[in-house]
């Protein structure tokens, strides 16, 4: 029989965090394949409906990006990029052709979806979005978020985000995620109606919990340290890679000068002319080959960036646990205080200095009726406090159980992805050297 998960006040020892792995370039576009329970089969024409969404295999793609001009909330004109999301069921129904649903979304709408998921699924390591503005760039790359190459890489990253959510056994069943893929109009209003903004924890409250929690769970403390290390290591790796790319690009391109010199030299040599012309051609080919090499490298760099941003997703889970632990400790402290007050009233002895004890000495004792009335009120508050404490304990245990199940899932994904990408990168480097 499976043992009950530990309470926040008595955590189990964590499993050791494993070394870095690397992410896959693609996930299978399967939405809700692992969802359980029966729902209606939908329209039966192969289109994706809310009823059959969790039971069918769905292909999701962000197929293109388009530069647009419009007006923002301040009624000011702005230029932005919209992305075309296409979804279609891979299952054919009675030989009918499968219809494709498509709609356009802005990056800010992807952000809104992820913020909603963070609030409603605090125990889940929510997949990160690709960078909004280019980081760790080298001189050939543009930091402009409207640059076509950057927009294309971000398009791939947004598609990967949707595939990550769609392949998650819990997130894939969310109705708001389904509407994000299928309902173009009024989707933002639907998200706002969930009231998720009111449920979001303030940064000040989270910071307060971080410093004031007395009995932090050792596992979440180690996880937070691990996420900091993960972010530091990947940031350093990406900075080094950008410097190396700059130097490598310069070394290759300087051979273009040799190509031009050999070509000019061949014009004044009779016997060596053909050989010099051939050498110049090979120098030009060598100089231009670096463009494709570094383009492939940028793909692996984007995969590393995904796990750079995953580090913040891990910290979000840790912050939520700290908030729950802090609320639990405050509830326990308040209950203990009320029990002490009740005991002091019942026995007539004051253990600690208090304003009430001082006024009693100055103005005399309360009447028995007044004392009994206060004791009755305190007993009711103690009963409510005990129920509240029990509820917070159960909530904390459930959070720990669900969070660590998802963290284990994340660790497996991370090790598989990083391992595969680093092997592919090594193979690419070997090919380049050959």
From TrEMBL:
<protein>
    <recommendedName>
        <fullName>Sorting nexin-4</fullName>
    </recommendedName>
</protein>
<dbReference type="GO" id="GO:0031901">
    <property type="term" value="C:early endosome membrane"/>
</dbReference>
<dbReference type="InterPro" id="IPR037430">
    <property type="entry name" value="SNX4_BAR"/>
</dbReference>
<feature type="domain" description="PX">
    <location>
        <begin position="61"/>
        <end position="187"/>
    </location>
</feature>
<dbReference type="Pfam" id="PF00787">
    <property type="entry name" value="PX"/>
</dbReference>
<dbReference type="GO" id="GO:0032266">
    <property type="term" value="F:phosphatidylinositol-3-phosphate binding"/>
</dbReference>
<keyword id="KW-0653">Protein transport</keyword>
<dbReference type="InterPro" id="IPR027267">
    <property type="entry name" value="AH/BAR_dom_sf"/>
</dbReference>
<dbReference type="GO" id="GO:0031201">
    <property type="term" value="C:SNARE complex"/>
</dbReference>
<feature type="compositionally biased region" description="Pro residues">
    <location>
        <begin position="1"/>
        <end position="17"/>
    </location>
</feature>
<keyword id="KW-0007">Acetylation</keyword>
<dbReference type="InterPro" id="IPR036871">
    <property type="entry name" value="PX_dom_sf"/>
</dbReference>
<dbReference type="GO" id="GO:0015031">
    <property type="term" value="P:protein transport"/>
</dbReference>
<comment type="subunit">
    <text>Heterodimer; heterodimerizes with SNX7 or SNX30. Interacts with WWC1/KIBRA. Identified in a complex with WWC1/KIBRA and dynein components DYNLL1 and DYNC1I2. Interacts with BIN1.</text>
</comment>
<dbReference type="GO" id="GO:0005886">
    <property type="term" value="C:plasma membrane"/>
</dbReference>
<keyword id="KW-0472">Membrane</keyword>
<feature type="region of interest" description="Disordered">
    <location>
        <begin position="1"/>
        <end position="49"/>
    </location>
</feature>
<keyword id="KW-0813">Transport</keyword>
<dbReference type="GO" id="GO:2000786">
    <property type="term" value="P:positive regulation of autophagosome assembly"/>
</dbReference>
<dbReference type="InterPro" id="IPR034902">
    <property type="entry name" value="PX_SNX4"/>
</dbReference>
<comment type="function">
    <text>Involved in the regulation of endocytosis and in several stages of intracellular trafficking. Plays a role in recycling endocytosed transferrin receptor and prevent its degradation. Involved in autophagosome assembly by regulating trafficking and recycling of phospholipid scramblase ATG9A.</text>
</comment>
<keyword id="KW-0446">Lipid-binding</keyword>
<dbReference type="InterPro" id="IPR034783">
    <property type="entry name" value="SNX4"/>
</dbReference>
<keyword id="KW-0967">Endosome</keyword>
<comment type="similarity">
    <text>Belongs to the sorting nexin family.</text>
</comment>
<dbReference type="InterPro" id="IPR001683">
    <property type="entry name" value="PX_dom"/>
</dbReference>
């Amino acid at each position: 029989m499976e043992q009950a998960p530990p309470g926040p006040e008595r955590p189990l020892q964590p499993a050791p965090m494993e070394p870095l792995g690397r992410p896959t370039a693609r996930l299978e576009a399967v939405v809700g394949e692992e969802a359980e329970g029966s729902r209606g089969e939908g329209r039966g024409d192969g289109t994706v409906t809310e009823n059959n969404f969790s039971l069918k295999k769905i292909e999701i793609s962000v197929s293109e990006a388009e530069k647009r001009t419009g007006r923002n909330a301040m009624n000011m004109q702005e230029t932005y990029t919209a992305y075309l999301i296409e979804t279609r069921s891979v299952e054919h129904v009675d030989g009918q052709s499968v219809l494709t649903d498509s709609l356009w979304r802005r990056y800010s709408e992807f952000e809104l979806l992820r913020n909603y998921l963070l609030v409603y699924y605090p125990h889940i390591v929510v997949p990160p979005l690709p960078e909004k503005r280019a980081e760790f760039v080298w001189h050939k790359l543009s930091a402009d978020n409207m640059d076509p190459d950057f927009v294309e890489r971000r398009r791939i990253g947004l598609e990967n985000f949707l595939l990550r959510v769609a392949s998650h056994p819990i997130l894939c069943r969310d109705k708001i995620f389904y509407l994000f893929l299928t309902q173009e109009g009024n989707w933002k209003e639907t998200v706002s109606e969930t009231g998720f903004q009111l449920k979001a924890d303030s940064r000040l409250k989270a910071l307060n919990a971080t410093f004031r929690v007395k009995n932090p769970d050792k596992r979440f403390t180690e996880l937070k340290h691990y996420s900091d290390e993960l972010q530091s290591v990947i940031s350093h790796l990406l900075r080094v890679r950008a410097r190396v790319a700059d130097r490598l690009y310069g070394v290759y391109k300087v051979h273009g000068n040799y190509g031009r010199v050999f070509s000019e030299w061949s014009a004044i040599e009779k016997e060596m002319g053909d050989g010099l012309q051939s050498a110049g051609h090979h120098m030009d080919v060598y100089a231009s080959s670096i463009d494709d090499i570094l383009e492939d490298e940028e793909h692996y760099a984007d995969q590393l960036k995904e796990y750079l941003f995953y580090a913040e997703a891990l910290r979000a889970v840790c912050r939520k646990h700290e908030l729950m632990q802090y609320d639990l400790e405050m509830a326990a402290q308040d209950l203990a205080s009320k029990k002490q007050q009740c005991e002091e009233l019942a026995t007539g002895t004051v253990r600690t200095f208090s304003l009430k004890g001082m006024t009693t000495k100055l103005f005399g004792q309360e009447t028995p009726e007044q004392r009994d009335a206060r004791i009755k009120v305190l007993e009711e508050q103690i009963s409510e406090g005990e129920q509240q404490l029990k509820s917070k304990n159960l909530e904390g245990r459930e959070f720990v159980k669900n969070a660590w199940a998802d963290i284990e899932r994340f660790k497996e994904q991370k090790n598989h992805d990083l391992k595969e990408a680093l092997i592919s990168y090594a193979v690419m480097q070997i090919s380049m050297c050959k």
